[in-house]
DNA sequence: ATTCTGACA
DNA sequence: TGTCAGGA
């Protein structure tokens, strides 16, 4: 259960997330407006993304590339629960941690992701999914 | 140096 | 979506 906290802990600013996902800041902010992601905020109103946020963004990116629009993605990506979101609350501890571990922890995580091959979690009937495609 | 919101030649 | 302005 402790891993869940680490996973939902807000760590990196948009700049790093951009490199991680190859998405532009514009896109990332746009997806947030459509509630596809709900990154935490610092006292200075800066976005802080968790590993889960990054994963969701990668899923979003994948779907966008396949031509799925926002409406379709909202059906695929489970809506953000209000309860488990409290882990993204920012306190002085995470604030300090963020400054220290940003790249090192990230690389550690990415390596784990590389060997933890996971099957495309997307599971929707093609017919139903096609309803959300742009063309 | 970075990021944020709003707006559109 | 890109990009620029103007502020934090």
UniProtKB/TrEMBL annotation:
SUPFAM superfamilies: Putative DNA-binding domain. Residues 11-79 form the HTH merR-type domain. Coiled coil: none annotated. Keywords: DNA-binding, Repressor, Transcription, Transcription regulation. GO terms for molecular function: DNA binding; DNA-binding transcription factor activity. It comes from the Bacteria. InterPro entries: DNA-bd_dom_put_sf (IPR009061), MerR-type_HTH_dom (IPR000551), MerR_fam (IPR047057). CDD domains: HTH_GlnR-like. It holds the Pfam family MerR_1. This is MerR family transcriptional regulator.
């Amino acid at each position: 259960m402790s891993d869940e906290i680490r996973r939902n802990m807000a760590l990196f600013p948009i700049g790093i997330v951009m490199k991680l996902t190859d998405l532009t800041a514009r896109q990332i902010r746009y997806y947030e407006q459509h509630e596809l992601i709900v990154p935490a905020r610092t006292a200075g109103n800066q976005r802080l993304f968790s590993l889960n946020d990054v994963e969701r963004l990668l899923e979003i990116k994948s779907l966008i590339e396949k031509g799925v629009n926002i409406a379709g993605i909202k059906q695929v990506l489970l809506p953000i629960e209000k309860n488990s979101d409290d882990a993204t609350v920012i306190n002085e501890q995470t604030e300090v941690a963020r400054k220290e571990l940003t790249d090192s922890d990230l690389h550690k995580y990415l390596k784990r992701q590389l060997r933890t091959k996971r099957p495309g979690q997307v599971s929707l009937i093609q017919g139903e999914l096609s309803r959300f495609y742009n063309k």
